[in-house]
Amino acid sequence: MDLRRHTDLSKLPVYTQVALLGN
């Protein structure tokens, strides 16, 4: 699943992006 289609990662803190991408 492409998270970018559901969540604008630019609005999230970097650590949140890492957590999402790490799962």
Distance between the first and last residues' Cα: 11 Å
Number of helical regions? 1
Sequence stretches where pLDDT stays below 50 over 5 or more residues: none
What radius of gyration results from the CA coordinates?
8 Å
Order of helices and strands: H
What is the makeup of the main sheet? Answer: none
Class by helix and strand content? mainly alpha
Helix content: 25-40%
Range of strand content: under 5%
Q: What is the mean predicted local confidence, pLDDT?
A: 70
Could you give the count of β-strands?
0
Shape: flat
Describe the structure.
The chain has one helix spanning 14-22. It is mainly α. It is flat, with a radius of gyration of 8 Å. The relative contact order is 0.22. The model has no long low-confidence stretch (mean pLDDT 70).
